Amino acid sequence: MAAFGSTQVGVSYGYTLKSADAHQNVSAPSNTVRAALPVPVDAGAPQDSRALLLPGTAGVELAWKIQEGKRYVVYRMSSEQSVQISTILKAGTFTDPDGTASSTYKVRTISSAGTLGDFSPVVTVSATP
């Protein structure tokens, strides 16, 4: 039996269970259940990311090219760290109400299997579309 934490991607493992009562009577093994960690799907990085400063104090609108079956998370850069500012998104747009002309962003793809992709290149804010 594999120890917790030592499973490998793509390898099938079989598990059975036995139960014991207070008198140490042990049951026969259950049927074998097989499980394997799926091979991760490459999520890639978002393409064509851009950020536009909205009028007044409305923030910054970010947009990127969506990919079939992918989801996205938006991060604002703060002192070279990425701070997540969105939930998981299906759409290819997000408005950061706290964004300013000096804000910078990254967008990250999540595959349909939940694998995190690479970050987009840093996106700077533009005042014109």
In summary, what is this structure?
The protein has 129 residues and is mostly beta strands.
Can you characterise this structure?
This protein is an all-beta fold and 129 residues long. The chain has a domain at 47-126: Immunoglobulin-like (Sandwich), CATH 2.60.40. The protein is built from no helices and 10 strands. The strands form 2 sheets. Strands 3, 4, 5, 6, 7, 8, 9 and 10 form an 8-stranded mixed beta sheet that branches. A two-stranded antiparallel sheet has the order 1-2. It starts with 11 loop residues before the first strand and ends with a strand. The model has no long low-confidence stretch (mean pLDDT 87).
Residue fraction in strands: 35-45%
Examine the coordinates and then state which fold CATH places here, giving the name of the CATH topology of the domain at 47-126. Immunoglobulin-like
SS class: mainly beta
Assign the CATH architecture of the domain at 47-126.
Sandwich
List the helices and strands and how they pair.
Layout: E1 12-15, E2 33-36, E3 47-53, E4 60-65, E5 71-78, E6 81-84, E7 93-96, E8 104-110, E9 116-119, E10 123-126
List the defining traits of the structure above:
single chain, 129 residues, mainly beta, Immunoglobulin-like, eight-stranded mixed β-sheet, two-stranded antiparallel ribbon
